[in-house]
Amino acid sequence: NKMGPILPDTSPIHISENVMGGPGRKKMKPLPVTGYDAQAILDFYDRRPLQVGWRLNALGIPLFGWYLGLLMDKAMGIADKPNVQRKRGEELRQHLVRSQSVALVKSGQALSLRPDLIRNKIWAEE
Q1: In terms of C-beta distances under 8 Å and separation of at least 24 residues, what long-range contacts does 41-48 make, across chains too?
Q2: Can you tell me the distance from the alpha carbon of 95 to that of 104, in angstroms, rounded to the nearest whole number?
Q3: Whole-number Å distance between alpha carbons of 111 and 117
Q4: Is the pLDDT of residue 38 over 60?
Q5: 70 burial type by CB count under 10 A (0-12 exposed, 13-18 middle, 19+ buried)
């Protein structure tokens, strides 16, 4: 029963597919703590306009479609029906989850502090 070297608790490790022993652990260098550099972040994303546009549209376009659905519900006079409100609340949640962005986390944080931001009780339940 050979055991590999015991790493101190402070060492970051990478566990490969061989979790149950053998050479499955590799030492990794910790990332340096550099702080928050707003200019470096701005420069980074200024050089990647397509990436920024893709991320914005990944949430913006579905939310715009969702908003158009709300307007159509209002125009057809069905916006106040509970089943329609439930459907719209579920769609909003799904758009946030599918976007795989920080919008889901940030909206959850905002709503935990200010539940009054969503006036529609059925949407809040969804």
Answers
A1: none
A2: 9
A3: 7
A4: yes
A5: middle
Greatest pairwise CA separation for the chain in angstroms: 73
**Token pair of 22, please?**
């053998």
The answer to whether 87 and 123 have CB atoms below 8 angstroms apart is: no
- How far is residue 39 from each of residues 36, 45, 46, 87, measured CA to CA in Å? 9, 10, 10, 42
Mean pLDDT over the full length of the chain: 76
pLDDT in tens, 59-108: 889 889 999 999 999 999 998 898 998 898 888 888 888 877 777 788 77
pTM summary value? 0.57
In angstroms, the CA 52 to CA 59 distance is 12
